[in-house]
């Protein structure tokens, strides 16, 4: 028996930094990753799909999101089993019990809406541990496994949340205990553990039978999610085997660069230029260094150019530290005089101070250089 393990679709997700048409394209990509599982199912011969929690971003969704998501699930073409997670728990406002969901839910979609066993095929079962609130008061996995014993049935445990060895917090009653998972595998009560919650693909423990699939489309930067955009194809044989398949098309990249002169800016320009699929790439820049006002204007011009090409590009303020120091004579060849020249001299003096007003003065001088570039030659 072969199936697809995926999780954390979080359909309806938005990213606050995406502007204009980038946000709709990102939302569409998340749905496309779901609908595209149909081709993967056909290519691999998978017989069903399990989604280990957080199918939706939350329970209060635009009806269009619900309808389009269900249509994407219909396109998969094989049974799809949805586990409610912490983002979309089975509480009083659950999307899964809404009139719209029930009316439009395709025949191939089953919500794992109770703790315990769901039959999948002769000799194959799912053991489900759905969330009923955002903060469980007990171990949902232990509840789901209660009474499940080895009897020759092949079983997949589908659960959501942090495993204790990864998220050690003795005060969290809903933590998943690795020892309990390994005991269930060792005893033959279950044969594979499909986990959700971590958005990056990850094996847990040493059995090779406990996995986080990660999200099929990236949700965070590469320092948080080193291996997103994948789903797992699982062969549920005597010794289950797991094969990752990349389905995501977006990237959230962090670039750390020193910027101390025009050569560093040119190097940054080259690195940004070489990144492929710019319309599906988000770039967070951690830049540190000291620049003249002219050089800072050149950096701003560089970032302005790429802001029109990438889904988003900008400074990571918490990790960036760029000092701007006006160079001697930097504003003597602008071709302006009189009152304007006196104002520039005053801005230069303020920009050289070590206080909050210096940043505004530096920004004003950088803008001046950009506006007068055709006359003075500043880039």
TrEMBL record:
GO terms for molecular function: exonuclease activity. Pfam families: Metallophos. This is Nuclease SbcCD subunit D. The keyword Lipid metabolism does not apply. The keyword Nuclease applies. Belongs to the SbcD family. Residues 1-165 form the Calcineurin-like phosphoesterase domain. Keywords: Exonuclease, Hydrolase, Nuclease.
């Amino acid at each position: 028996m072969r199936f697809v393990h995926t999780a954390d679709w979080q359909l309806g997700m938005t990213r606050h930094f995406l502007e204009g048409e980038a946000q709709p394209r990102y939302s569409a990509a998340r749905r496309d990753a779901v609908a595209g599982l149909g081709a993967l199912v056909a290519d691999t011969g998978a017989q069903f799909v399990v989604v280990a929690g957080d199918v939706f971003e939350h329970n209060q969704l635009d009806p269009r999101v619900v309808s389009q998501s269900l249509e994407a699930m219909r396109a998969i073409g094989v049974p799809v089993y949805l586990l409610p997670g912490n983002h979309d728990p089975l509480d009083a406002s659950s999307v899964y019990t809404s009139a719209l969901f029930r009316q439009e839910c395709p025949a191939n979609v089953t919500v794992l809406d109770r703790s315990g066993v769901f039959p999948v095929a002769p000799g194959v079962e799912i053991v489900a541990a759905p969330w009923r609130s955002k903060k469980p008061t007990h171990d949902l996995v232990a509840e789901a496994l209660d009474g499940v014993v080895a009897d020759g049935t092949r079983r997949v445990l589908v659960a959501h949340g942090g495993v204790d060895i990864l998220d050690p917090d003795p005060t969290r009653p809903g933590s998943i205990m690795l020892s309990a998972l390994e005991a269930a595998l060792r005893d033959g009560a279950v044969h594979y553990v499909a986990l959700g919650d971590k958005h990056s693909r990850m094996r847990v423990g040493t059995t090779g039978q406990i996995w986080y699939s990660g999200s099929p489309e990236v949700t965070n930067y590469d320092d948080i999610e080193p291996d997103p955009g994948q789903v797992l194809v699982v062969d549920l044989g005597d010794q289950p085997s797991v094969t990752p398949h990349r389905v995501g098309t977006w990237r959230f990249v962090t670039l750390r660069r020193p910027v101390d002169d025009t050569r560093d800016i040119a190097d940054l320009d080259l690195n940004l230029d070489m990144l492929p699929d710019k319309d599906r790439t988000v770039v967070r820049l951690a830049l540190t260094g000291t620049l003249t006002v002219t050089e800072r204007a050149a950096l701003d011009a560089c970032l302005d150019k790429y802001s029109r090409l990438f889904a988003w590009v900008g400074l990571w303020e918490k990790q960036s530290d760029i000092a701007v120091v006006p160079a001697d004579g930097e504003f003597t060849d602008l071709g302006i005089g009189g009152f304007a020249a006196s104002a520039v001299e005053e801005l230069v003096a303020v920009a050289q101070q070590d206080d909050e007003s210096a940043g505004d003065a530096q920004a004003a001088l950088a803008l001046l250089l950009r506006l007068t570039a055709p006359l003075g030659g500043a880039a």
